[in-house]
Amino acid sequence: MDTPARLRPMLRAAAIMLATAVAGPALTSPAFAADPIKIGSVVSATGPSAFLGDPEAKTLKLYVDELNKKGGLLGRPVELVLYDDGGDANKARTFATRLVEDDKVVAMVGGTSTGATMAMIPVFEEAGIPFVSLAGGIEIIEPVRAFVFKTPHTDKTACQKIFEDMKARGITKIGMISGTDGFGKSMRNQCLKVIGQYGISVVADENYGATDSDMTPQLNKIKNTAGVEAVLNPGFGQGPAIVTRNYAQLGIKLPLYQSHGVASKSFIELAGPAAEGVRLPAPAILIGDKLAANDPQKPVVAEYKTSYEKATGQPVSTFGGYGYDGIQLVARAIESAKSADPKKIRDALEATKGYVGVTGIYTFAPADHLGLGTDSFRMLVIRNGDWAIEAPAR
């Protein structure tokens, strides 16, 4: 695939700035004689999805550096070739092609959004290079593709966790307001597919665009729909924060459920006081200090939180955690395969069992390239500007 002339200067600049920044320091200690093992990544480190992609990029850099300090993989240095798609799926595909054809990567960890991931999948599938996505859409791994895996819970799993909580609270009718982005559309569709299993129905169904700055009209329709007992907002980015602020401004007192797509401190900051009481499913990483002492994820979450916050001066988020699990899974697969051959890495990934990550405990199988269930989600509620474990309904 030829790169359009207008993109070449931008691609070269991005490659020099990001790849050099990552590979240079990481390869200085210890000294290596062998050629590097190249792992690719395309994330949205800038643009509207930067609050997702920036911690992913920082995490990948941090842990590739850590791998090299410990001797790399198979006695070889690890080089992270990292590109920033700025939230543009077309750029993501262009960078994916470059990673395969020019950079010769043996594995890929990235894809901040579902849209970018879906744009890149054909490139890595055709090349036979394992791709561990950091995006949420279930269509990434259903149907199963030979070389594609993912670390975040699927939107289907999030729907199931939310509906379990609603059912336990006696909620039977809800309003839904969804983003029209790839994630929002996918989660809405998945929720509609499974909601009937919980005795719950959608009696108001609204949506909003990626650039909308006021969702008051849609929320007013939901507010004025008879029988609504709670509201669910499938979406990510800035949209859910706007929905949450408008929700409070309209004085709606019904429970508001958000998705794991907003499981970041930046959502609380964007939504402000209106976030109080919002419920959502999220990984253990957000409440690591509140986990039981015998929880197998507690030490893993603590180590990642300490390392990331020390290195960046920023709080951890679920999105950086997806990157942590992605790079760890690939590194483990390379060590297990005792090879940097992409097909052997793929086979080792699929054979992963019981890997304890910050997002959950992964067990892949030929028919399951996610390896997580609803038990790896924790139901959280926002209290006093922070995360709290939601008490089970009785």
Q: Would you kindly provide a written description of the structure presented here, covering whatever features stand out?
A:
The chain has 394 residues and is an alpha/beta fold. It has two domains: 5-153 and 300-363, 3-Layer(aba) Sandwich (Rossmann fold); 155-282 and 377-389, Rossmann fold. It has twelve helices and 14 strands. The chain has helices spanning 8-26, 50-69, 89-103, 114-127, 155-168, 182-194, 216-223, 239-249, 265-271, 298-312, 318-337, 342-350; strands spanning 37-43, 78-84, 107-110, 131-133, 148-150, 173-179, 201-208, 230-233, 256-258, 279-282, 355-356, 361-362, 378-383, 386-389. The strands form four sheets. A five-stranded parallel β-sheet has the order 2-1-3-4-5, sandwiched between helices. Strands 7-6-8-9 form a four-stranded parallel β-sheet, with helices on both faces. Strand 6, helix 6 and strand 7 (201-208) form a beta-alpha-beta unit. It starts with 7 loop residues before the first helix and ends in a 5-residue tail after the last strand. The model is unreliable at 5-29 (pLDDT under 50).
The CATH superfamily title of the largest domain: Response regulator
Secondary-structure element pattern, one letter each: HEHEHEHEEHEHEHEHEHEHHHEEEE
Major sheet: size, sense and barrel closure? 5 strands, parallel
The overall pLDDT average reads 91
Reported by name, the CATH topology of the largest domain is Rossmann fold
Secondary-structure-derived class: alpha/beta
Any idea of the CATH class of the largest domain?
Alpha Beta
**Count the helices. How many?**
12
**Number of strand segments:** 14
In order across it, which strands form the biggest sheet?
2-1-3-4-5
In percent terms, what proportion of residues is strand?
15-25%
- Second-tier CATH architecture of the largest domain: 3-Layer(aba) Sandwich
Through-space gap between termini: 57 Å
Low-confidence stretches: 5-29
Count of all domains? 2
